[in-house]
Amino acid sequence: MKETIKTKKQLFDEIAELRRKIKSFEIAAFNSPDKNQELRQGEELFRLLVEHASEAILVIQNEKIRYINKKATEIIGYSEKELSSRSFIDFIHPDDRKLISIDKILKHGSRIAPENFTCRIIDKKGETNWLEAKLLGTKWAEENATLCFLIDITERKAAEEALRISETKYRQLVEYAPAGIYEVEVTTGKFISVNDVMCEYSGYSKEEFLNLTLWDILKEDSLKKVIERVEKMRRGEAVPALAEYELVTKDNRKLWIMINTKLEYKNGKPVKATTVCHNITEKKALEQELLKAQKLESLGVLAGGIGHDFNNLLSGIMGNISLAKLEAERGEDIMESLDEALRVSSKASALTQQLLVFSKGGAPVKKAASIAEVLRESIAFTLRGSKVKCEFGITEDLWPVKVDVGQFSQVIHNLVINALQAMSKGGAIKLRASNITLETVADIPLKPGRYVEITIQDQGNGIAPENLPKIFDPYFTTKSKGSGLGLTMSYTIIKRHDGHITVESEVGNGAIFRIFLPATEEVPEETADTENRAVKGEGRILVMDDEEILRKVAERMLLELGYEVACVRDGAEAIEMYKKTKGSEQAFDAVIMDLTIPGGMGGKETIKKLLQIDPKAIVVVSSGYSNDPIMSSYEKYGFQGVVTKPYRIEQLSWVMRDVLSAAKKKRLRRRL
Predict the structure, then answer these.
(1) Which residue in 45, 89, 213, 471 has its CB near the most CB atoms, within 10 A?
(2) What is the pLDDT of residues 145-158, one digit of tens each?
(3) Where are the beta strands (DSSP E) in 415-563?
């Protein structure tokens, strides 16, 4: 039965208004000259109000219904005639008759206080309806009676029951769902509710869990990610539907969960988060194992390729050296064979540098340089003997940049090789280099500022759209031969130079690679002579290296350059010898230290102790591991120079000349 539901207050207000109007008519009738007429008018008004009231109204006397209004007949379903002299108790549901004291009310009428109750009635059709009742004691025909006001609340009860069923289903769903579910206060991180599955995941009981906060169970990195995620949601920013976090269980196990969170807002601010999560720890472990297997497979491919290349290079080195020996025995000129062996050795060195780029750290040894000449030389070398030419467009006043020239040359070499392979029928590569100032609105993940932009455009077949997002991925290649590391290495090198590399391509229209490198205010060093000739020097040098063959080579080079030399195997021997000779004619003017000494004191530890003995000591660091941060920031650790293995005598000569000259100038300035 669909009826408008009124509150108790509305009902009681209407009853009060009804009584007020009746009272006013009684007073008016009493004071009126024509009292009978006024009373009749009051009775008529009373009848109209009662008959058309939106609530059911009954008068019950001696348990019988003496009066019933129109609304009451609609609710109960019987006519006024059918209800005449019937007991009101007959219509009340049997189960509810025991719950209320209605019989006492009906018998005693006006001698008891008003009473409210809720009960069910059975209408003429046999249907059950819920009513909210108010009973008042009154007089009817000078005898005690009960005035009964009824409101149909069947719909409200149905809604309440539906809500109860819905809440029960929700609780069951939460409790028995195959996922962890919990609610948490956004501001405090305190858990509000939790289901059994989440307790099973974490190892805590419900009571224990509800005494915890997010800060107690999430690992630090995951907690930061949660806070960042909530902040983005609070600002209305889009966030991925799913996220992965790592938590610590009661027994200190690490558990990975995948979560989906919904925020509840109040006054525009998030106050509660409801989270559904799944345990993905096993999935993570399987992914790690799969990744290891893929890495091993990739390493096998890489090792095979590197092994092949190294064998070729070693063949060139050994072959030319053996030829030089024969030529020397015959008294012939051996310079051509030795130069060729040296050239091949440089290629082997470049190959090891490529591998080091992928090792941990991989920090480039950067120096201010003008890269215009580097670009021209790298491309000319790579295109030598091919059917492809290069069209240059390099700005004359190109800003200097800080780069590891060797690594940067390798990037250009890789990009040009790719272009060359894409242009099997020949053609032209366009290389452009210009100055550019990036603003904050630029669609490039770089800080605003001055950059040098380099573009390399080929006339090849282009890159398929499905492959374009993957070309910088490790080991991805579309070639039948190749390791798939060239572009990955190029991307890594440029990133470690605080730059960025992009690619654009359409099938049939070639590809365009763009490189952005931050410009520097530093003036590039003059390096024209360092590659071609060695410079002589004088002084006493201490060489520290654990490899005997390297000590001998360094000693012979330094002797050839005019220096006196002493060699030691590790840092402990170096410190002892430096102490003994300090202040004497045998004191050392400079020290060359190997950075890594397996089982002994290396350069990093040794220089600390050496500078305590002599704060003015001149020390050069040497290592084959250019990925070590000391090699790229040697001055921070107290070194005055760096020489990367393998090195030629020309490189060593210029490094020693520079550090000794700089030290000499400092001493002169102090004297002045």
Answers:
(1) 471
(2) 778 888 888 888 88
(3) 427-438, 449-457, 500-505, 511-518, 540-544
